[in-house]
């Protein structure tokens, strides 16, 4: 028993050390080196090292294109089949005939689905730095449908121009016929497609970690250290977005089946989470709540009346648009709020692009560090 315990202790010591240049190195020194490498990568950002960041970003793009080209070259049959299918679809789309009415209907639905799925993907990619399209697009869309539903007493908006523009139907509806469920049903497609997009956006870290594990590569301790640090600080109610990416990394590394991971993510994001968000937005922008919010703003001492007037003008402008009276002129409040929203979208898009450039530059820097470490070990 004593001998077995001694052997276990020796194996444990060996596992906690890394052989380097024929000698054993203290794990603390290796952790310190990884920490310095991580700090060095984090300094590679556009506002600190613009030239190096742009250079590494360009080189990382070339590396990714080379990897994709190699993968496509080894899957020639799939590529040829996809090109043939694409050629058939293009011919069907371009050739005139009675089928064009179905083609146009399918095209409209496909573009609608692709639009919201694309926004969902943009919202979840980028290790927590994605473009938050719910606040910029889906949330305002649900709010607009909610306000229009209570104003028109109907959700049967004319198509077209819906969903590009919302106007009240010509037929009169009985007041009070709008319910929470009717508004949820009206925006269900957009919300579910957006949720599906967010689930798809969680797949890249899962596949990368899974491929690294299957290739026999050692797990990246830095990602797991960051994961543990987030778990230690995840005491607040709101879990940080990078936690979901690291959850994908963890599931990929431990070879969790794809449909188990994606199915759970899809149910959580496209069904459970989206219905909670929809109900929250619909209740927040219901007619009575909006009136109480405007009254509350006006009751704020000092600046209340000056803030209340633009919101009232904006709501009145929306009512005019819903009843085909947008040609009467645009109030100043709408210009102010629209200008603020446009600038917010521009800022968020710029930040998203900058985060992509920084992330890809840091990824290339990590490649360099890993190559240098491998060369040092082989000396």
Automatic annotation (TrEMBL):
Span-the-membrane segments of this chain are: 45-65, 77-98, 110-138, 246-267, 279-300, 336-357
Organism, by scientific name, is: Lynx canadensis
Q: Which gene name does the record give?
A: VMP1
Question: Out of the domains of life, which is the source?
Answer: Eukaryota
The protein's name is Vacuole membrane protein 1
- What keyword terms does UniProt attach to this protein? Membrane, Transmembrane, Transmembrane helix
